[in-house]
Amino acid sequence: MMPPLEAVARAGGPFYVPVGTERAVFAAAYRSGLSILLKGPTGCGKTRFVEAMAHELDRPLITVACHDDLTAADLVGRFLLRGGATEWVDGPLTTAVREGALCYLDEVVEARQDTTVVLHPLADHRRSLPIERLGITLAAAPGFGLVVSYNPGYQSVLKDLKDSTRQRLVAIEFGYPAPEVEEGIVAAEAGVDRDCAAALVRLGQAIRRLGAELREVASTRVLVAAARLIAEGLPPRVAARAAVAGPLTDDPAATRGLLAVIDSYLPADD
Ligand code: ADP
Q1: Ligand 1: residue whose CA is nearest its atom 20
Q2: Are the C-beta atoms of residues 71 and 112 closer than 8 Å to each other?
């Protein structure tokens, strides 16, 4: 049985509210040496979850935000010129492999496919990292775990994960939490009362129903940001315009739609 939420919070880990079976699946996959794929839209708690699991499993966490210029050398390491001499410097993946840390590659589809290929021998039963430039293959230290995330909404044919990469991973699906759970997260993260959090969550759900008109819908992250502005004393509509409408779209028609939804879900400013 997983310990209850209170136990996790008491143990001094990051504040994380479990939303399903994700902790059990993560722990089982990690213990059996399988690599983990976290799937879900931005701002739904993937990074916070990995931080909480690293704490729960008592492993250091090394996080890499992937982008389309990320090369295999950025992950593995490179020779650098220092004081006239060349010196090998480990990349974050190599450090995690040597130290037995959790390595979290956030938005892995952003990285070039030749980059993700270096993950293959690590992600399967070999659990090893070949470093061509050094002519060695490192065996992963006990405790090493590979976690990658991606947002299926952003995927394009080009950026879709290779099947050979996908099939080396155990997938955990993330979505937005149930309303009562999300209310608790917003209230606790921002220090606002339950009524205020509930109004923001209803607003978030209304925006999620707008769906197709927006590239991204309102995430838990933007609701927490709006709640923080309210906790700082801003009127709710002003807070939501700044933290929710502004970040979600630049399109004038979509903005008008969002402002109308904000005005119908949040009380008028004094
Ligand atoms: P992602 O990595 O999926 O983009 P994050 O983990 O950064 O999202 O989550 C964004 C914010 O939403 C967090 O900083 C936190 O305030 C809040 N959050 C989302 N889900 C949870 C959760 N289950 N427990 C606690 N906080 C959460």
Answers
A1: 45
A2: yes
Considering the entire predicted model, what is its pTM? Answer: 0.89
CA distances from 111 to 35, 41, 50, 66, 232 (A): 17, 17, 20, 5, 38
Ligand 1 centre distance from Cα of residue 225 (Å) = 11
Q: Does the beta carbon of 41 lie inside 6 Å of ligand 1?
A: no
- Check: CB of residue 189 under 8 Å from CB of residue 56: no
> What stretches of the chain show up as alpha helix (H) in DSSP?
5-10, 22-31, 46-56, 72-76, 92-99, 113-116, 120-123, 163-166, 179-190, 194-210, 220-231, 236-240, 246-248, 252-265
Per residue in 46-65, pLDDT (tens digit) is 999 999 999 999 999 999 99
Q: Ligand 1 within 6 A of 44 CB?
A: yes
Whether residue 221 has its Cβ less than 6 Å from ligand 1:
yes
Q: What is the layout of strands, in order, in the sheet containing 35-39?
A: 61-65, 102-106, 145-150, 35-39, 169-173
Whether the CB of 39 sits within 6 Å of ligand 1: no
The pLDDT tens digits of the residues spanning 213-244 come to: 777 789 999 999 999 999 999 999 999 999 99
The rounded Å distance from CA 208 to ligand 1 centre is: 17
**Cα(45) to centroid of ligand 1, in Å?**
3
